[in-house]
Amino acid sequence: MTESTTETLLKTLHEEALQGEKAENGFKKKAWITARAALRDLYGIELEVSQLKSRWANLKKDYEIFTTIENNSGFGWDKEKEIPTAPDSVWDSYLKAYPEAEKFRYHGLLHFAVLDELCMNVSNWRVCSYLEPHISKYCRKRDVEEEEEEEEEEEKEGDINGKRYNGGAGSGVQRERKSAGKAIA
C-alpha cells in the first residue's frame, strides 16, 4: 500500500472506531468492509479484508516499536524532527537488542497521531486531534464534557493549613504525550 492508501485506511478506521466499530481486540467486520469500500471508491483498487488486516498489523507493530523507544529512559526527543534521540552508544546498544528499531533512528513514525489514538484503548481517548477540521460532534462533545469535569474537580480541591493543595507530584497528573509523525488532515 502507498502512503495515500495507508492514510485513507487509517482515516476510515478512525471514523469507524468513533462510530463504535472497534472492540478491545480489534475492529469489527463493518469497519473492515467500510475501509475496503473507501479504498475501492477513492483509488479504484480491490483489496481483500485480509490484506487490510495485514497492513494494520504492520502499522501496529511499528507503533509498538516506536513507542517503546520513545518511552525508554535513555532517549530524548527532537521536537523539530519528531524522532527519538540518544547518543550513538545508546542507539548502538539498543539496536543490538532491538534491530527492528533501526528505521526510527533518523525518521519518525508516519501517521503517529492517528495510530496513537487507534492503538490505545478507545475508552482512554483524549482528543481526536488529527481530524481537527473534520472532527466529529462526538469528539467535541466528549472533550467539552471532560473539560467541565476537570474544572469541577479543580473547584473541589481543598485548602490544607490555608494553602491550596493539588495532590503534589504523585497526584496522577500525567505528562503530555509526545507527538511524532505527520498529522493527517
UniProtKB/TrEMBL annotation:
For region Disordered, the annotated ranges are 141-185
Annotated protein name in UniProt: Myb/SANT-like domain-containing protein
Q: What is the lineage of its organism?
A: Eukaryota, Fungi, Dikarya, Ascomycota, Pezizomycotina
**Pfam families recorded for this chain?**
Myb_DNA-bind_3
Q: Where is the Myb/SANT-like domain?
A: 3-94
Q: Where is the composition biased (Acidic residues)?
A: 145-157
